[in-house]
Amino acid sequence: FETRKKKILVGIAPKMAEQIASQALRSNLVSNLLVKTLESEKKYLNSRFDFCGTTQSGETFICEVKNVPLADYADVCKKDRKKMSFSHLSYNKKIAYFPDGYRKKKSDPVSPRATKHVQELAQLKREDPHLRTILLFVIQREDVCSFQPSRLDPTYLEAVRNAVLDGVELKTLQIVWKKNKAHFLRNDLPINLYD
């Protein structure tokens, strides 16, 4: 991918995001989460979550991973984007966002499955306040300065906002691809939950 004469590699595979998250969890690279035990693909309620385990302080956690390959200078529809200019911004000032995809109607959620995961993480947290429920966004690109739930999917955005109010933790893991290898970049990318 070339952006303003600078080439960057962008990871797009969701399974790769899960592998990156697994390695990061085992290496304690996810902020404020020191992992002691880790299992993958565990079923709770009506969802199969990517990871669960215990922390070094004895807390139990459930972690759902979402792959975030997309970014732009503004999280707006194509029609609105055409009216905007971003020539004053450097290549690394984009906003990473999730989800994005095809939908028949503008009012439809982009990913009903992703929305269900968020809602069930919130439900699990409400049922057991001692359980840590985590939504981990793996951003597989270096040219972003923040992350946000996409404003183009109000259903998902509202679900995430409500989940945070219920105690679900939002975390980011940003990696950079160099010579077909993922390298840890940061775990504290700012999250824009509200405009």
Description:
With 195 residues, the protein is of the alpha/beta class. Helix content is 24%, strand content 35%. A six-stranded mixed sheet has the order 3-4-5-8-10-11. Strand 1 and strand 2 form a beta hairpin. It is globular and about 50 Å long.
Strand order of the largest sheet: 3-4-5-8-10-11
- Write the element-wise H/E pattern from the N-terminal end onward: EEHEEEEHEHEEHEE
Alpha plus pi helix count? 4
Biggest sheet, in brief? 6 strands, mixed
Helix content bin: 10-25%
Shape: globular
Radius of gyration: 17 Å
Number of strands: 11
**In percent, how much strand structure appears in the residues?**
35-45%
Please describe the topology of this protein.
Blueprint: E1 2-3, E2 6-7, H1 14-26, E3 35-44, E4 47-55, E5 60-68, E6 71-72, H2 78-81, E7 94-98, H3 112-127, E8 132-139, E9 144-149, H4 154-166, E10 169-178, E11 181-186
Parallel strand pairs: 5-8, 7-9, 8-10
Antiparallel strand pairs: 1-2, 3-4, 4-5, 6-7, 10-11
Helix pairs in contact: 3-4
Q: Key terms for this structure?
A:
195 residues; alpha/beta; 4 helices; single chain; 6-stranded mixed β-sheet
Brief characterization of the structure:
The chain is built from four helices and eleven strands.
